[in-house]
Amino acid sequence: PSSNARLAAGIARVPDMLAAGVPVGLGVDGTASNESGELHTELRNALLINRLGAHREAALNARQALRLGTFGGAQVL
């Protein structure tokens, strides 16, 4: 999410992807595109940025974000 924000690449429609059964993972790009390699920062940003593109009830919740950063990341690998 941080690299998308920094590069003005848009907001991923994660809730729609999950509803469609698309495997989704959350990770970090490294310092070249987000100045940090910290997953907890990306989890927080995923929650906050996703609220901009969705109605609050359709936005990610903390449990979903944590799952994307752990099981979701493993699933897409």
TrEMBL record:
<dbReference type="InterPro" id="IPR032466">
    <property type="entry name" value="Metal_Hydrolase"/>
</dbReference>
<feature type="domain" description="Amidohydrolase-related">
    <location>
        <begin position="1"/>
        <end position="77"/>
    </location>
</feature>
<dbReference type="InterPro" id="IPR050287">
    <property type="entry name" value="MTA/SAH_deaminase"/>
</dbReference>
<dbReference type="InterPro" id="IPR006680">
    <property type="entry name" value="Amidohydro-rel"/>
</dbReference>
<protein>
    <submittedName>
        <fullName>Amidohydrolase family protein</fullName>
    </submittedName>
</protein>
<dbReference type="GO" id="GO:0016787">
    <property type="term" value="F:hydrolase activity"/>
</dbReference>
<dbReference type="Pfam" id="PF01979">
    <property type="entry name" value="Amidohydro_1"/>
</dbReference>
<keyword id="KW-0378">Hydrolase</keyword>
